Amino acid sequence: MRTKPYSQDCDLLSSFKHSAAPKSVRSVHFPNDVVFQDYVRHGELERIGRFIRARRVSLDTIYLSGMAAIHEAVLSGNLDCVQLLVQHGADIHQRDEEGWTPLHMACSDGFPHIARYLLSLGADPELENDCAEKPADLIEPDNKELLQLFGLLVVND
């Protein structure tokens, strides 16, 4: 099968490419904290581990988002990521800029599997954030699993 040759108009792009001056290559470098935070948000466990082992980040850093890495991991709903950060020394009682602990976030965002894990490690359910809210105060009324975990579910027999 034979294709038609390009018309003069179609060839304009290719002639333009050859006559343009070559552009210099630019590269963008982001600070380690920004890259690490992105890895946490996306649950890239292998890269997170490499960053931590290479001591390229501090797990207690509060990012521009107002949160530390463990808060970001909780908000992503990724238990494996939370566990990895804790294994490497992330503080389960770390507070963000509004006084929220990871347990506050797990309750607020409806992640009973993460809340259960944090509680099993001794996360304090009585800690209050800056608005005097305990983690259980932030549980949505329809989240039966979290309500049961905190002993707030009334079961009618």
TrEMBL record:
Database matches in PROSITE patterns: ANK_REP_REGION, ANK_REPEAT
ANK repeats by residue range: 65-97, 98-130
What keywords is this UniProt entry annotated with?
Answer: ANK repeat
Q: Which GO terms describe its molecular function?
A: phosphatase binding
Organism's domain of life? Eukaryota
Which SUPFAM superfamilies does the record match to this protein? Answer: Ankyrin repeat (SSF48403)
* One Pfam family per UniProt: Ank_2
Stored InterPro entries: Ankyrin_rpt, Ankyrin_rpt-contain_sf, PP1_regulatory_subunit_27
What is the protein's given name? Protein phosphatase 1, regulatory subunit 27b
Q: Which organism is it from?
A: Tetraodon nigroviridis (Spotted green pufferfish)
